[in-house]
Each structure stands twice: as structure tokens, then as C-alpha cells.
Amino acid sequence: MHRLEVALARVASGQDSLLEQRRSELQADLRHDIHDARGGVDAVQAEDATDDLDTGSVMAQGSLRFSLMHMKGEVLVRIDEALGRIDQGLYGLCQSCGAEISESRLRALPFALRCTRCETRREDAEEAQHAPRVLQRLRSEW
Q: For the whole prediction, is pTM greater than 0.70?
């Protein structure tokens, strides 16, 4: 099947509306999170903590809140990129090998860039590159 035909088939199967819906949900969530963060909703200030343990807990809670907001923002970017690939006729095609990304993978991760095989290879290579550094750091700490 030609690349454009694959992408059009994905659009016809409703993948674009799924992405649009998820984008709208995330945008609403982020607006709500930002509003709450700016307004101090459910926020306990470090100076309100009674001891060091409470202070640490307050700081961790705030850090977690902003980490989640950051992750939502990253997913929004990936969804926008996936919608761009739909427009370009490239959606559902592996950026590494050009093969079709399986329907089940796209249902689970609608903004997937690679097929399962290529993603596994990428993760394995990344892990192999990272593992020696971790071992070296551990050895130097002992």
C-alpha cells in the first residue's frame, strides 16, 4: 500500500478524531492545572510545614504537580506532531524503517513514531549505551 493510502486509511478509521479528542482533553486538563497552580489551590506552603519531613513532603508534592503538567505538555506536542503527519500522509508509518505501525500499537499510543520492532531496537541501543555509564558511576562510588 502506498504511504498516502496508509495514512488516509488511518484517518478513515477515526485515528484523527481520537487524537483531536485527546488533545482537547489534555488542553482542558492543563488549563485547569495551570489555573490551580497559579491560584495556589490545594497547595500547602513550605512555611506551613511543622517539621523537615513535612517540608520535604510539601516540596515533593509541588514538584510532582509540575512534573505531571510537563508530561501533559509533552504529550500535547506529540499529538500535534501526529496530526501533522496525518496531514502529510505519513501517519502510521515507522520513521525508522517505513513499515506500517500496527493498529494495536497506534490504539495504545496514537502518536507512536516507530513500529514495535524499531522501537525495541532503539530502546535496547539506548539501554546498552546507558548501562556502562551507570556501572562506571557505581564502581567509582564504592
A: no
